[in-house]
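Listing 4. Sequential folding, example run.
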Amino acid sequence: MQATTQLIHSIPVDPLTGAVSVPIYQTSTFVQEAPGVNKGYDYARSGNPTRATLESLIAQLEGGQVGLAFSSGLAAIDAVAKLLKSGDEIVAVDDIYGGAYRLFTQVYEQFGIKINFVDTTDPAKVFEAITPNTKLIWLETPTNPTLKISDIEAIARIAKANRCLLCVDNTFASPALQQPLSLGADIVVHSATKYLGGHSDLIAGIVVAKDAELGARLKFLQNACGNVLGPFDSWLVIRGIETLHLRIRQHCSSAQVIAEFLQQHPAIDQVFYPGLPSHPNHDIARKQSKGFGGIVSFSLKEDTTEAAAAFATTTQLFKLAESLGGIKSLISHPATMTHKSIPADRRRAAGVADSLLRLSIGLEDATDLIKDLEYALDHYTTTYKNVAEKAA
């Protein structure tokens, strides 16, 4: 059975009414038959039938034993970090999401957890960064926003040899394209706000554990700390997952065309997209993923924040906004938006230039999106030609 068919028919029909849509159990508590005797639920923080359906569904999609739904992507990351104790160390991808960087460096470092940032596209650098105290390797692949690709299988072997957990943030690829647990990872996290939800109408996070024992530890933390996803937002994520494979197919198709267009434009300095043969990790992306995703990043030849801002405020179909993965195309400037919490020198060293812009390719017609980019590029080229001429 094909993945799309299996997914659709994994979402249960309500046994009580026959409803084809999962019911929203909007309740905080459940009546018990006797003290400690119930129908599987006692209090909605500990478990809710709508959330349980989502958690089972995402575990199946990622090929894991236990799925857990959290109130945000950062809450999901926080739960994984709580597996560690003072004195432990994390080896983390250098081109990391700004929110994760802030959480690791400004929250967990003060609790005695050390973070070592490395270029994880080179497994040898991951190996060299591991110490006897390293307990967790943290990957994003593709990374946010320069779309670096790390070899999950190779790093999983390093993690196992050194008794480290390997966690992969699979937000950009989604399980429609990539299943890190099948490649050796122990944990997968998602900002379900993005492709899983798919409609820019919710905030949610997901953790999937490969084995039941690790899943039980994470389930304890979810309940003990209380960062749970509500029933209505759980239903919204289920609804988004129903069309995930179809949406991802279109996101990837349009992103490839747009990346190829940008690559040949003289105003563009560099295009970041794993689907381009020129991408340094193209072969690894082909090996471990079914597609290259819906995110395209690029830097302008005029490498200034002002140039990027001028471009980002000129597009019409690409809306300037945080987030990604929705049906409407978005543009963002990582240096002043998603990655502003990362010091400028560290950000630039990881490849996030001042002029770098990130595109989240939506479901609009690709020809219309290219016309929008052409208009913005023409405006940008004219503006900076005039500036250069005046300076001369």
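-- end of first protein; second protein begins --
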Amino acid sequence: MKSFLNLIRWPNLVIVALTMILMRYAVIEPVISKINVFLVSSPGSAVPISLQLPWYDFAVLVLATILITAGGYVINDYFDIKTDLINKGEVIVGTKIPRRKAMMWHNALNVAGVIAGFYISWKAGYFWMGLLFLVVSGLLYFYSASYKRQFLVGNFIVALLTGMVPMLVAIYEWPSMYRFYAVYASPPPDLSIIFYWIGGFAIFAFLTTLTREIIKDIEDFEGDQAYGRNTVPVVTGIFTAKMISVLLIAVTIGLLYVVWYFFLNDKITLAYLSVTVVVPLLYVVYKVIRSSGRKQLHAASRMMKIVMMAGVLYSVVVKLILDQNLV
């Protein structure tokens, strides 16, 4: 059981679930609660908008995402046995878990995830959206089998799919709210604000994931070069790859302050982002530039993961600010 949990990267799955839960209850719910509408049934009094997707359907959405993600981790280890032996010195697939069993788990997790995805899409009123889970499942397979060996392609796929995690919450919450308030509210409210808020988290997730993937490629340079993988550091050289990761961090920091200045402009957000996100990102820049071995790069990669988690936890700050009317 321990080997299986390590194979599916259970801490990462917990973070995926936590991200989706926080997006719904710490961002979307308090944001829409600030929008008042007049219901047809009670025209004289305005009431705040509330979530309309049942919690148990939301739980299925989270489960579908976790299952597809877990299947992606399994197939990644399945195809990475040789390079992981060089880069990490140990593997799970082929030693603790037989290759055939790993493939069986991959298939089972993906089938269950796609079925759950079609179910929640049907409940949301758009059955065809279940194809999204099928496409993601295929992307994760071909990423591990081929795309990660191609210049930047694999990095972009991982970053894009990571950014999709928070967006899934908005995509599946919107239809149920739109259908309800289009009928029962006069006039129907503008719900686009939830996509602006969640979109900000998604862009942050995309940029930080892309940065971390390039740093990890620099860390795994030896194994990737040995097996002919065209990763960023293998193609451009380690120095150029470092500069690309530093540039991405600079873009991330710049966008954070631009968004804060033009759209938020509150002291609580400024303090939180500066302390928990920007300062650690500057530490990553220092580690990447000064790195001369795997140890420093691994520390930078680990710090990027902490930064990503801090970005997700900003949702708690959003809820606090909105609930307590601190701005």
